[in-house]
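Handout, page 2. Input:
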Amino acid sequence: MTHNLNKLSEPKIFISYAWTTVAHQQWVVELATRLMHSGIEVRLDLWDLKEGHDIYAFMESMVTSKDIDKVLIICDSGYKKKADNREGGVGTETQIITPEIYTDVKQEKFIPIVSERDEKGEHFIPQYMASRMYIDLSSEDSYEENLEKLIRNIFEVPLFKKPALGKPPQHLIEEGNAPLFQTAIVLRKMQTAADKHPKRLKHLWNEFSDAFMESLSMLTIEDIKDNTLIHEEVINRIDQSIPLRNDYVAAIELLCMNEVLEADNAVEFFEKLYAFTEFQGSGSYYESQFDQYKFLITELYLLTATIMTRHKMYDELTQFINGEYFVESKFKSEPLDFTRFRFHLQSLEYRNQALKLQRLSLHADLLVQRSPEKLKKDMLETDILLYFISKIHEAGKEEFYPRIWFPTTYIYNRENPIKTISKLKSKAHFENVKILFNVESVDEFKRRIQDFKGDRGYSYGIDSIPSISNYIKSEDICTIP
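Output:
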């Protein structure tokens, strides 16, 4: 043991025991010897009490002296009997020790050492200290392990040291007075289950989904007196939704990492979310009153697709974006496709104009600023990927209003490649991802993209939305294994 690392460099202890048998005395001497060899100064009557010494004074000085750091009380059947009945030297010691124990504020000086147990396995700790934690040296099997624990206790170097108090997490400081959402509690259950019982994650996802829907009510905007100020309320609610968004991202990541995310569950989740984009009561309302929900839903959809793509869950992603969404709506009876989860936010456009911010898109700005750092680059790519997928799905269809996912954040991704597209040079990659584009062959895919042109994009923007040809040429597709 390295003394210069210890709080007590030269600890001194006293061993109190009963002269029960010669064998027990020898056991005590062997313990004292082991402690001496470990750098601990041991005071023992057999070593330190000489003829002519006052026995009572010796005992009292050992128990009450400030020079003695610890008092080890060796608990066998003989010690318990004499201590409880106040018999002999042990009885005298007990009378001295008892008041010291009750005034030992730190409760560190007096340590019961169990040296013997009865046939039922019960220890022999005296009544006056029965509630104290003890160290068990009664078994040969655990003797060495527990002796190490005792030595650490004496030197005040515990095996498990309490860490220094840190600072509050930065995200809590930033969130300030953000509401506490029930999803945080369910997420902790999911994180625990992921380590021990990953099969429970499917059940816990249902609980998380319910908690999420309940928590959304905290973002409602009510009592609108001035329509021109709705944008302020929308921004406030969007800010307040960050912890809820973070819980959702963490939950989806857990499901993906444990390979238990099912596309049907994700579809059902967004079907329920859609109801928050519409007025559910009676009376008058403003359309912008629900923009905080529309923003969050677009963000969550984009992040869900991003996480699925990162984990190469192409089958689940295909079901997620190709599935029909049977939403609870007052105004829409037909099922929706995934492009309907990208919303136009009137309140943010009004804010941009009213405050003369001169931004191309506050919606895009907020999505990028809020994005979890580890997902930001992939999210920008996925936004454009969803646009490409929707364009390819609509290729050849004569729709008056084509169903296109508008890539809100394309202005932030002018230079970076879209990996899922750029890697289409590889036949193996094409075979993995062709399901996303709803094609069976390379030729079919090439036909779908041959007339592909980028759309105009933002009205006052310089750049159009990029085309697939910005990332790969048709003739390069599937040219390598």
